[in-house]
Inverse folding.
């Protein structure tokens, strides 16, 4: 298959959706991005890579980091994590409190905000220097030192992050946050502020396609079984209340972020990252979703 | 791999869960089954088959039929079906009305009761003799004439089916049932009453592993793309509010029924049916779930 | 106080709201009423009466009948009724199923649809000829034989009553309907179809102002304590999710109907009925609410 | 009527419930109270007073203060308050976030936590020295200088008040908190920590029985109409999801607190305060509810 040709076609075809959707602007820093940006980077396990567009420009990875965070947490505490967070799709928007209230403080899964906040709490409890260690971990995953927190984004998130503060307080009231609330929020907003390129994201998620090579910060490997389960989690929970739609149309495990990025993996074959800042009503990149749908349609490469 | 040996091991290992769980007894007919029954039947695309236990005894397939029903409906009306039912996991029990009320009569997906009732309504609108035609379709899928409705089960379901009647009336109040409510319920209870063996179920679901060979009743094929999407749907919605758990632990698209049956498919390779009547708290076969978890663990055959 | 003068003023002042709101048209029979109709009838315990507008024209009393029905049920089975229905405001629209589902089939109170359907079921169980006996009871309360069911309205409600059928089936699934669903719905739709004038309604509710004179069909009196509790129930639950608003602005126990009628009582003093068909967004008579607000403001006669 | 005799009877009769219920212990300070305490203080508009038990011992008034707070807020900003908080019963527990989320940050009423937090925010915006001024207001209402905040209780509430912090953050995310979250919580926990005796509470709520004499801190009177509406609000919303039960059984506007206190008023006649620390499952004083039910039953003095 001529993957370069396919990416070029996708790039052209998604242009018909340019102008649809809306860049996230709940904090000013995110709203300043050029909405026309678009990039794809495809990395195969055998080392081949293909790309189109602005695939080497940095953008805010936002919720995509939740997958890396839960992966790191599992590498440290293993199965015990499932006592504090579930593995079910929530069927609710990413930042809902209602469900959390009814289910007594156990988030449905680690890829919605409440779950990721519990994961952040776990990492704070186990990392010596949480911010420094986490950044080190992401750099190792992406195989580059050139990855930073955007301190301005992190600070701005905190200024406007009342809903996340509400969630964290509610979790704390149920005993499912062990550290100081301010510390958890600070760490969470920092890891969400990480900036990466499509190329770097694609590289960082390659271990999810290649079972068993995800070097954890502790120097141990995530097992093949753990990787599979993280992929399963992305499949059912990676797109908030649009997870079914993504699974249905794209058929690959993946995760989106409000910065317009989406990563997806095709086990045993490749990982791919797309970036286009305009979001659909569910908060997922509109052209990014279309691009990945075209990718699996054109290549037939879906897990189903 | 020695699949026969693996099935034998699974058979032994799941015995430690015998006694846990509870046979469905909301209608007397289902409650009369011997709870100790257990069977697995594995059918590969290349024709090889493996089995253990009571894999050739009939049992009530119940909700498993929802996959066949929605497949048939798609083969008839195509994409139009998604105007009347969604593709998202519900995050709620199988028979919940609350979500349906909030979302104005559009069921979250066709594999929960409300969605399957809409599918039943669609089939009634398009089949000349709905009961006869549907049975004919299932027989063709399973490649045997020896499949029947259990009229007693269907009648008993109706006597106790007030919640399904509530759902259908609520759907009707939103305009999402076009036929007579009694007719829809009658057809729905009939198709759920079908009795099949693990062997027959495994055969009937083989086309979901082998993209593009699912003969529809109209004589046309479901496309490879349609099959993939049905698999995706099973993955995210096949186990009610335990879909994430199944995806996480088993990693195969599948569907369970309250009669204790579960089918699952490994695309390009095999389909498998398990039967064990005792259900866990979420209404899925307790030993069946364990058996399939062991199968993917022992074989490494998960889609992730 | 010159009550006639006050009613005349109210009649004039509410004209500024004419044209706002919308006549109920979920069944054609209700939609045919002249939206400009307006009437008030005020009956004092000492026998004095005052009225303005079309206070002696018949209209569909609809949900107002729920108070009479629960009163009759209490006169028959007493406190046992509270095992099957609660006394709390629902905080939800009148026809919601969600709450009923979460609370396992015990309606929040007898003045929302689900609760009134349970009351209808109780009456069917205890009345020899439910329809005939209930009509007889209402006639005695209103002191006139000239009260009828509107059979056409009852039939039309049934044709369009899928949501009430949904509620009744859901109640039945929880075991809180003892009779045949069709019979319950038929009886319920009949009692809601009763047509009365403001004058007749005012008379029928006078016993609620005059503790202890509500002749029950069994020939016994409702006790003063029972009357007070029914008034309390009207106060907290008489206007669906606008009960607080009515209590807040009008300050009298009352009950509205989708036909545009409202009754209210001022204990020890009077009962009043208003009619104006246009409804606000919560389903209560828009001008009727305003008229009663003006009445308590002008007279200072609120229970608070 | 011999009110002293009636109070003595009530005192005796409620003893049969001693031992039922549970003292609030979510903060250690509240848990230390002697559960056997019981007092009633009844103040008539004509100056007569009656009492039994420990009616002159201080206890934590907790949520009872919400009525005084909203009264003060209305005296300052008038009707504008209803743009930020509603007047409907919530049908949910006092500290629920779910409803608040669905209704976009407008609390159902000012007597549940979320509503009272908005009221606290309003008072902070309008009082020069919020803590000092509010205490001054309560002292004037109760006609004694001998009223204090319990700083230890306020501090302890803050340490354990993650759910209230969650609510305040959620309100802030919807723009319905204008001041600093810490300031709002601090003020809220302070006013809830006020300690009063039954006698003082009874005095402080006498203006609610005597329309038009509630001196506000600004030196103006609450109007008779405002008082009536506050009474209406207590009637429908004063007891969380047990408001209907209280209205039904007691038939007086009232408000309870988690410290075991309840106040109620009989318009034009009296105000009454009861104290008994053991709470029922809904968080209202178990013996306090019984005592007030007996009071209206024995005296016939209910508003209905």
């Amino acid at each position: 298959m001529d993957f370069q040709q396919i990416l070029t076609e996708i790039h052209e075809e998604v242009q018909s959706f340019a102008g649809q959707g809306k860049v996230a602007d709940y904090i000013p820093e995110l709203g300043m991005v050029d909405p026309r940006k678009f990039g794809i980077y495809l990395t195969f396990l055998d080392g081949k890579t293909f790309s189109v567009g602005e695939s080497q420009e940095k953008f805010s990875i936002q919720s995509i980091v939740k997958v890396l965070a839960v992966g790191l947490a599992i590498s440290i505490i293993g199965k015990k994590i499932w006592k504090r967070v579930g593995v079910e799709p929530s069927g609710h928007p990413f930042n809902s409190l209602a469900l959390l209230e009814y289910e007594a403080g156990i988030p449905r899964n680690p890829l919605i905000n409440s779950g990721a906040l519990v994961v952040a709490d776990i990492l704070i409890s186990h990392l010596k220097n949480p911010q420094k260690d986490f950044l080190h971990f992401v750099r190792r995953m992406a195989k580059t030192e050139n990855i930073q927190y955007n301190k301005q984004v992190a600070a701005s998130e905190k200024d406007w992050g009342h809903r996340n503060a509400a969630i964290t307080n509610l979790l704390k009231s149920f005993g499912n946050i062990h550290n100081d609330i301010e510390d958890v929020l600070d760490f969470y907003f920092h890891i969400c502020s990480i900036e990466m390129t499509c190329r770097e994201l694609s590289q960082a998620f390659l271990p999810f396609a290649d079972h068993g090579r995800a070097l954890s910060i502790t120097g141990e490997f995530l097992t093949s079984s753990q990787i599979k389960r993280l992929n399963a989690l992305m499949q059912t929970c990676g797109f908030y209340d649009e997870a079914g739609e993504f699974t249905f149309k794209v058929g690959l495990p993946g995760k989106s972020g409000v910065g317009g990025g989406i990563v997806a993996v095709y086990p045993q074959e490749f990982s791919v990252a797309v970036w286009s800042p305009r979001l659909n009503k569910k908060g997922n990149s509109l052209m990014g979703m279309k691009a990945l749908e075209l990718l699996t349609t054109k290549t037939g490469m879906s897990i189903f």
About this structure: Residues 154 and 190 of chain A are 5 Å apart (CA to CA). Chain A has a mean pLDDT of 92. Chain A has one domain: 3-299.
